[in-house]
Amino acid sequence: LFAEYFMELKDDFPDIHFVSFNGTVDGENITSLHFDGYAMGYFAGMLSSDMTETGNIGVIAAYPHQPEVQGFEDGSYYNNPKVKVKVEYVNSWSNVELASTILDDMIAEDVDIIYPAGDGFHISIMEKIKNEGLFGIGYVSDHIDLGESTVLTSTVQHVEKLYTLIAEKYRAGELEGGNFYFDFADGVISLGTFSKEVPVDIRKKVELAVEGYIETEKLPHEMNK
């Protein structure tokens, strides 16, 4: 939301370096930060496809442009080709009512693990998932506190760590203008606490996949080509 306004202001304040999230910018004194969500969705899909009992898992996302959605599908299908992934979009970060209706539809279709990828409706949806006795994957923050028997793990975006990283780059005179993407290897995205409901072998499988990705920048399907 800020990128557009910062683009209008930056030339009038050349001694200020403007920083925002998720926009598209251009200039020496303006930077847009992006979390690369594909891999975190991929690992959430891997875990979900191993943990489902019905073979049906789902994503309730805010918008189609979210890379974690495609990541979830790819990780799920690579890990378990027999699984079925249902994806629905709220087209809003905060429309709890519509997200709840979508969840009802998914439950009616025997979906037993849901990834509510919308920073605004995700808490309410996770609470409803808990009440329905289903499993969910936390989004943006570690949501294990919402129910260890409900939250299998979370895809965590460490906003505070990214701000610190950017501040350090600025102080060192190394902050460049433009659009930059950050991922697991940068230490600003991680998986959260695993539920005790996740068997040790499945947890280790996902953790090793994350470690391999950080070391090689390759996801499991890329490493096995």
What summary fits the major beta sheet?
A: 6 strands, mixed
The count of strands amounts to: 9
Tell me roughly what share of residues is in helical segments: 40-55%
Q: Any idea what the radius of gyration is?
A: 19 Å
Secondary-structure content class: alpha/beta
Termini separation (Å)? 40 Å
Mean pLDDT score: 96
Strand content: 15-25%
Shape: globular
Low-confidence spans: none
SSE series: HEEHEHEHEHEEHEEHH
Strand order of the largest sheet: 4-3-5-6-7-9
User: What is the count of helical runs?
Assistant: 8
Give a description of the structure.
This protein has helices at residues 3-9, 38-51, 67-79, 96-108, 122-131, 159-171, 200-216, 220-223; strands at 18-21, 30-35, 56-61, 84-89, 113-117, 135-140, 151-157, 178-182, 189-191. By secondary structure, the chain is of the alpha/beta class. Helix 2 (38-51) packs antiparallel against helix 7 (200-216) and helix 4 (96-108) runs parallel beside helix 5. The radius of gyration is 19 Å and the shape is globular.
Key structural traits:
3-stranded parallel sheet; alpha/beta; 6-stranded mixed sheet; 21% strand; 225 residues; globular
Summarize the structure.
The protein is α/β, with parallel strands linked by helices and 225 residues long. Helices cover 40% and strands 21% of the residues.
Tell me the layout of helices and strands:
Layout: H1 3-9, E1 18-21, E2 30-35, H2 38-51, E3 56-61, H3 67-79, E4 84-89, H4 96-108, E5 113-117, H5 122-131, E6 135-140, E7 151-157, H6 159-171, E8 178-182, E9 189-191, H7 200-216, H8 220-223
Parallel strand pairs: 1-2, 2-8, 3-4, 3-5, 5-6, 6-7
Antiparallel strand pairs: 7-9
Helix pairs in contact: 2-3, 2-7, 4-5
